[in-house]
User: Fold this.
Amino acid sequence: MSLLAPTLQSFFTQWLVGQRRVSQHTVAAYRDTFRLLLAFAQQATGRAPSQLDWDDLDAPLITSFLEQLETKRHNSTRTRNARLAAVHSLFRFAALRHPEHAALIQRVLAIPQKRGERNLVTFLEPPEVAALLAAPNRDRRVGRRDHAMLVLAIQTGLRVSELISLNCQDARLGTGPHVRCRGKGRKERVTPLTDLTVAVLRTWLAETQGQPATPLFPGPSGKPLTRDAVALIVSKHARTASARCPSLAHKKVSPHVLRHTCAMQLLRAGVDISTIALWLGHESPQTTQIYLHADLALKERALARTTPPDAPIGRYQPPDAILAFLEAL
Assistant:
């Protein structure tokens, strides 16, 4: 067995889990990255993954791997950069343990992230929110569960991982109603609840009669819903709601779109960016700036304030044909 295999094992067990204490989602993402990379290296070199050495994972091979992700697997630039970040993390870990490969490691670490396009965030307008919340069939228990989950997701802006990890005890519906969750980076935060959300959750909790440690939104087996299950639930009800609100047919509605919708509702209500960042659990208010770019109404109001009061209205008309010719040159 080469030096790569024990280093990769130590990277996961000692560094990621033991020292950094990263989440299971991060471990899974890094695991998938190296499964793809080792399979690609095996195909390129003809060596089994357990026989690969550091010299096999040089900068040209890593670059070819990243190109293959985009061209053959059709991964986005964002996914490509996430895979590269995992590779960089491993090579930084290896730099202290294998100084004899310092030159190779530095060349891999010098591979840059790729700049990609940043699209405007997708969010739901008030009529679309109303149609989505009315979509679940509340004559059935599963419909009442979905309705309560959608109401909570849109009002609080919880990430899907935070939503599915909620237990019944995390919804405090007494004085100062709020929901408590442990979010990204193991940061605990508290989000207040509106009267409507409290009423919906109180009805749902009375129906489920769950114990404090049982999932707030259980699946058929009583276990928490998975991320994929929530995504399917949201997309299913969005398709149903599109019959009532046709604009939904042109939007790809996901659980994260509900999070964006919460942020836009807060922004349009006049809540400042710093408060929205705290509400959503963002590490920095800079992350929340994307919602300023997405709100056209906010830009129009800013434009109305900056328009000179005596500016003439209409398009410029040249006074003469010959002047128009010269202007066009």
Observations:
- Residues 24-45 form the longest helix (22 residues).
- DSSP finds 15 helices and three strands in the chain.
